[in-house]
Amino acid sequence: MIVKHYNPDPHAHPGLHAIALVELGKGGLALLAASGLELLGPAPLRRWVHALIDTFHLDPNHGAAAWLSNAINPDGVHIAALLAALYGVMHLLEGWGLWYAKAWASWLGCITVMLYLPFDLYALAKHPGWLSVIAVAINVLVLWVLARDLIKRRK
After folding, report:
1. Is residue 127 in a domain?
2. Residue at 4 is within a domain
3. Max Cα separation, the chain?
4. Same domain, 125 and 81
5. Where are the alpha helices (DSSP H) in the chain?
6. Is the entire prediction scored with pTM above 0.85?
7. What is the rounded distance in angstroms from the CA atom of residue 142 to the CA atom of residue 15?
8. How far, in Å, CA of 63 to CA of 39, rounded?
9. Helix (H, G, I), strand (E, B), or coil: what is residue 11?
Protein backbone atom coordinates (compact mmCIF):
# COMPACT_ATOMS: atom_id res chain seq x y z
CA MET A 1 0.00 0.00 0.00
CA ILE A 2 1.37 3.40 -0.98
CA VAL A 3 0.74 6.21 1.47
CA LYS A 4 1.02 9.72 0.11
CA HIS A 5 2.40 12.09 2.72
CA TYR A 6 1.49 15.74 2.99
CA ASN A 7 4.33 17.89 1.65
CA PRO A 8 3.76 21.55 2.47
CA ASP A 9 4.83 24.20 0.02
CA PRO A 10 8.23 25.46 1.25
CA HIS A 11 7.16 29.02 0.36
CA ALA A 12 3.96 28.88 2.39
CA HIS A 13 3.63 31.04 5.49
CA PRO A 14 2.94 29.05 8.67
CA GLY A 15 -0.09 31.27 9.32
CA LEU A 16 -1.88 29.67 6.38
CA HIS A 17 -2.90 26.70 8.52
CA ALA A 18 -4.37 28.96 11.19
CA ILE A 19 -6.33 30.91 8.58
CA ALA A 20 -7.40 27.63 6.95
CA LEU A 21 -8.83 26.36 10.25
CA VAL A 22 -10.82 29.57 10.72
CA GLU A 23 -12.16 29.35 7.16
CA LEU A 24 -13.08 25.68 7.60
CA GLY A 25 -14.88 26.58 10.82
CA LYS A 26 -16.79 29.43 9.14
CA GLY A 27 -17.75 27.13 6.29
CA GLY A 28 -18.96 24.42 8.63
CA LEU A 29 -21.02 26.86 10.70
CA ALA A 30 -22.58 28.34 7.55
CA LEU A 31 -23.58 24.86 6.33
CA LEU A 32 -25.09 24.13 9.75
CA ALA A 33 -27.03 27.40 9.55
CA ALA A 34 -28.26 26.55 6.05
CA SER A 35 -29.37 23.12 7.22
CA GLY A 36 -31.08 24.62 10.26
CA LEU A 37 -32.98 27.11 8.12
CA GLU A 38 -34.23 24.33 5.86
CA LEU A 39 -35.16 22.05 8.75
CA LEU A 40 -36.92 24.71 10.82
CA GLY A 41 -38.79 26.54 8.11
CA PRO A 42 -40.36 29.98 8.49
CA ALA A 43 -42.85 29.44 11.37
CA PRO A 44 -40.37 29.09 14.27
CA LEU A 45 -38.20 31.87 12.86
CA ARG A 46 -41.19 34.22 12.73
CA ARG A 47 -42.06 33.30 16.35
CA TRP A 48 -38.48 34.07 17.45
CA VAL A 49 -38.50 37.45 15.73
CA HIS A 50 -41.84 38.30 17.38
CA ALA A 51 -40.43 37.20 20.74
CA LEU A 52 -37.44 39.53 20.19
CA ILE A 53 -39.79 42.37 19.26
CA ASP A 54 -41.78 41.79 22.46
CA THR A 55 -38.71 41.32 24.68
CA PHE A 56 -37.00 44.50 23.51
CA HIS A 57 -40.23 46.50 23.12
CA LEU A 58 -39.56 47.23 19.44
CA ASP A 59 -42.08 48.70 17.03
CA PRO A 60 -43.65 45.69 15.24
CA ASN A 61 -44.64 47.86 12.25
CA HIS A 62 -41.41 49.80 11.59
CA GLY A 63 -37.68 49.16 11.61
CA ALA A 64 -35.40 46.23 10.89
CA ALA A 65 -37.26 43.76 13.11
CA ALA A 66 -40.55 44.51 11.35
CA TRP A 67 -38.86 44.14 7.96
CA LEU A 68 -37.33 40.81 9.05
CA SER A 69 -40.67 39.55 10.35
CA ASN A 70 -42.33 40.37 7.03
CA ALA A 71 -39.45 38.90 5.02
CA ILE A 72 -39.71 35.49 6.68
CA ASN A 73 -41.63 33.28 4.29
CA PRO A 74 -40.91 29.88 2.70
CA ASP A 75 -39.25 31.39 -0.37
CA GLY A 76 -37.16 33.78 1.75
CA VAL A 77 -36.00 30.94 4.00
CA HIS A 78 -34.99 28.84 0.97
CA ILE A 79 -33.05 31.76 -0.51
CA ALA A 80 -31.33 32.48 2.82
CA ALA A 81 -30.44 28.78 3.17
CA LEU A 82 -29.05 28.70 -0.37
CA LEU A 83 -26.93 31.80 0.23
CA ALA A 84 -25.65 30.39 3.53
CA ALA A 85 -24.81 27.08 1.83
CA LEU A 86 -22.92 28.85 -0.99
CA TYR A 87 -21.05 30.95 1.58
CA GLY A 88 -20.20 27.78 3.51
CA VAL A 89 -18.98 25.87 0.48
CA MET A 90 -16.83 28.83 -0.61
CA HIS A 91 -15.17 29.01 2.83
CA LEU A 92 -14.68 25.23 2.98
CA LEU A 93 -12.97 25.32 -0.42
CA GLU A 94 -10.84 28.28 0.64
CA GLY A 95 -9.90 26.53 3.90
CA TRP A 96 -8.95 23.34 2.07
CA GLY A 97 -6.88 25.31 -0.43
CA LEU A 98 -5.10 27.26 2.28
CA TRP A 99 -4.38 24.09 4.27
CA TYR A 100 -2.66 22.64 1.21
CA ALA A 101 -1.01 26.01 0.35
CA LYS A 102 -2.74 26.50 -3.00
CA ALA A 103 -2.11 29.88 -4.63
CA TRP A 104 -5.73 30.20 -5.79
CA ALA A 105 -6.87 29.98 -2.16
CA SER A 106 -4.52 32.81 -1.15
CA TRP A 107 -5.95 34.89 -3.99
CA LEU A 108 -9.51 34.09 -2.92
CA GLY A 109 -8.66 34.97 0.68
CA CYS A 110 -7.07 38.29 -0.31
CA ILE A 111 -10.10 39.24 -2.36
CA THR A 112 -12.60 38.38 0.37
CA VAL A 113 -10.61 40.17 3.07
CA MET A 114 -10.33 43.25 0.88
CA LEU A 115 -14.12 43.14 0.46
CA TYR A 116 -14.67 42.95 4.26
CA LEU A 117 -12.08 45.58 5.18
CA PRO A 118 -14.04 48.71 4.11
CA PHE A 119 -16.98 47.57 6.26
CA ASP A 120 -14.66 46.99 9.22
CA LEU A 121 -13.09 50.42 8.75
CA TYR A 122 -16.54 52.01 8.54
CA ALA A 123 -17.56 50.22 11.74
CA LEU A 124 -14.36 51.45 13.40
CA ALA A 125 -15.11 55.04 12.33
CA LYS A 126 -18.75 54.89 13.44
CA HIS A 127 -18.26 52.85 16.62
CA PRO A 128 -14.67 53.22 17.80
CA GLY A 129 -13.68 50.72 20.42
CA TRP A 130 -11.42 47.81 21.12
CA LEU A 131 -13.70 45.31 19.34
CA SER A 132 -13.63 47.33 16.10
CA VAL A 133 -9.86 47.74 16.39
CA ILE A 134 -9.41 43.98 16.88
CA ALA A 135 -11.59 43.20 13.84
CA VAL A 136 -9.57 45.56 11.62
CA ALA A 137 -6.26 44.28 13.02
CA ILE A 138 -7.18 40.64 12.39
CA ASN A 139 -8.27 41.34 8.83
CA VAL A 140 -5.11 43.35 8.12
CA LEU A 141 -3.00 40.52 9.57
CA VAL A 142 -4.82 37.92 7.44
CA LEU A 143 -4.39 40.10 4.36
CA TRP A 144 -0.68 40.50 5.15
CA VAL A 145 -0.16 36.72 5.54
CA LEU A 146 -2.02 35.90 2.33
CA ALA A 147 -0.37 38.69 0.30
CA ARG A 148 3.05 37.65 1.64
CA ASP A 149 2.32 34.08 0.52
CA LEU A 150 1.49 35.28 -2.99
CA ILE A 151 4.56 37.53 -3.16
CA LYS A 152 6.86 34.70 -2.06
CA ARG A 153 5.39 32.47 -4.75
CA ARG A 154 6.33 35.00 -7.45
CA LYS A 155 10.00 34.99 -6.42
Report:
1. yes
2. no
3. 67
4. no
5. 15-40, 42-55, 64-71, 74-99, 103-126, 130-154
6. no
7. 8
8. 27
9. coil
What range does the domain containing 150 cover? 102-155
CA dist 137 and 19 (Å) reads 14
* Ordered alpha helix ranges (H), 41-73: 42-55, 64-71
pLDDT in tens, the chain (155 residues): 555 555 555 556 678 999 999 999 999 999 999 999 999 988 888 898 889 888 988 888 888 888 888 888 888 899 999 999 999 999 999 999 999 989 999 999 999 999 999 999 999 999 899 999 999 999 999 999 999 999 988 87
Do 72 and 60 sit in the same domain of this protein?
yes
Dihedral angle, C-alpha 95, 97, 102, 107, nearest 10 °: -60
Three-state SS at 5: coil
Which of 48, 11, 28, 41 lies closest to 94 in space, CA to CA? 28
Task: Classify residue 123 as exposed, middle or buried by CB count within 10 Å of its CB (0-12, 13-18, 19+).
Answer: middle
